[in-house]
Design brief:
Low-confidence stretches: 68-74
Mean pLDDT: 78
Strand content: 25-35%
Helix content: 10-25%
Radius of gyration: 26 Å
Number of strands: 5
Distance between the termini: 81 Å
Largest sheet: 5 strands, mixed
């Protein structure tokens, strides 16, 4: 009987000490904006190029450097893309260089990427990997 009482006490204490989780969410408003082709002025095809060198999987050249645009400049994370996504840091740098070379545009339309990867150390990309990306797209102004 004593074992049953102590087991019951352990179960009651365990139930009182259980974890709980509370999640609060807030619904966003409908912030949909619709644009037509006539709302944009499109450029001709422009391109930008960037090179990323990784040693043992780390881009040492950009590890401790944070480059952001100032006085109305752009950052790679703030560039709106229509019809594509940035899949790598090298693509992000190439799109950034394209926007910096063609100031005054607001959005990138349907970027295309040409990627060249070079593994100079016996063809093993784990040690050293040099990726060159050329991004080509049309840019638009509102």
């Amino acid at each position: 009987m004593r074992k049953f009482t102590s087991l019951l006490l352990v179960l009651i204490v365990g139930a009182m000490c259980s974890c709980s989780s509370t999640h609060l969410t807030m619904k966003d408003g409908n912030t949909r904006v619709e644009f037509n082709k006539s709302d944009f002025t499109l450029s001709d095809q422009v391109s930008g190029e960037a090179t990323e060198t990784k040693v043992i999987g780390i881009d040492w050249a950009r590890l401790f450097i944070k480059k952001t645009g100032s006085n109305g400049g752009v950052t790679a994370s703030s560039i709106p893309l229509v019809g594509g996504m940035l899949e790598s840091a090298a693509q992000s740098y190439a799109v950034y260089n394209m926007m910096e070379a063609n100031k005054g545009y607001d959005v990138v339309f349907y970027p295309q990427y040409e990627t060249k990867t070079l593994c100079p150390v016996i063809g093993i990309c784990f040690l050293t990997k040099i990726t060159t990306v050329k991004a080509t797209a049309r840019l638009g102004k509102l």
